[in-house]
Amino acid sequence: MRTPVTIIGAGLGGLTLARVLHVHGIPATVYEAESSPAQRAQGGMLDIHDYNGQLAVEAAGLMDEFHAIVLEGRQALRVLAPDGTVLMDKADDGTGGRPEVQRGDLRQILLDSLPAGTVRWGHKVSGARTLGEGRHEVTFADGSTVLTSLLVGADGAWSRVRPLLSTAIPEYIGKSVVEFYLFDADTRHPAAAKTVGGGSMIVPTPGREIFAHRETGDTLHTYVGLSEPQDWFAAIDFTDAAGATARIAEEFDGWAPELTALITDGDTAPVLRPLYALPTGHRWDRVPGVTLLGDAAHLAAPNGEGANLAMLDGAELGNALAAHPDDIEAALTEYEQAMFPRSTEVPTFEGAEILGIDSGDTTAQGLIKKDR
């Protein structure tokens, strides 16, 4: 008898798993802390790669829906020096293998593909414990519990399921990103809009980066990368939007005004996002009835692969369970043996050497690849 699957987390990885299981007729329930799909914004753009993320979309049977949300022209890439000199200007000729979509749109097509009631919203996990014989109990913040014989932690960096398998805790990587938005950029911020172009733009320098991309319409989404300890950011009062913006802009004094405008002209309060990672090569011994996927399993510094890998994890786990319907442990072993090495393989950005980006600087490459 096929065992229903309990998935913690309704991100892209967890939803992909639920969808692939549904395609194969295997029931699953997804528990999500957010109260609804609209509780918070789902982040910016994602480039979905033909060698991992798109394979997951295909396994989910959603390629037509995926093509319908692709934003044309967004694979264009410009790389500039701090003085505004263009170092690389690559047009989107329609042949690239990394089409861009809005993360929220991708999540929505996955949600729409699942039977009603698959996702149980408003279920924040407070802990999980092993009961033996492959069974586990998950406890929610409201005191309710659920018992399961197949538990999947798809609950991100601070997974509540991970402690069942590993003592690893994410550590700060020494860099944070501060986000800004510029709306109606073509009319209200024309110089910045022209500089970014129709796709993405990055200015990579040691310890200081500005990356921006054009989202739906003429919205510009800016990520400012700063290599500083957490105490440095703690000294900035981010509740004072104007003051925090001015402090971040100080770090780019002397840069071209069309670049610093991506910070100083922001239409939203700056949002600080510290970057964390699990130990490289994080893995665990097989524990009956439980596994992890996505950031819960292999949180890394931004490297252009995070969301894509999470989706591929979900698809491959779903396919493994479908291939071994009467042997959960065989399915989980097969999945983990493929997932562990895959999560450590980071393709090098083709222009890294030309642009002076160290091949090991996955954060700079990840900003170029626009996955995080």
Structural notes for this entry:
- It is globular, with a radius of gyration of 21 Å.
- The protein has helices at residues 12-23, 53-59, 63-69, 103-112, 185-188, 190-196, 230-234, 241-250, 257-264, 295-298, 306-323, 328-342, 352-355, 362-369, and strands spanning 5-8, 28-31, 45-47, 77-80, 86-90, 100-102, 119-120, 125-132, 135-140, 145-148, 151-153, 171-182, 200-205, 208-214, 220-226, 271-277, 290-292.
- The protein folds into two domains: 5-72 and 98-168 and 278-342, FAD/NAD(P)-binding domain (3-Layer(bba) Sandwich); 171-277, D-Amino Acid Oxidase, Chain A, domain 2 (2-Layer Sandwich).
- The longest helix has 18 residues, at 306-323.
- Strand 9 and strand 10 form a beta hairpin.
- 32% of the residues lie in helices and 24% in strands.
- By secondary structure, it is of the alpha/beta class.
- The strands form four sheets. The protein has a seven-stranded mixed sheet with strand order 5-4-13-14-15-12-16, sandwiched between helices. A five-stranded parallel sheet has the order 7-2-1-11-17, covered by helices on one side. Strands 8-9-10 form a three-stranded antiparallel sheet, with no helix packed on it.
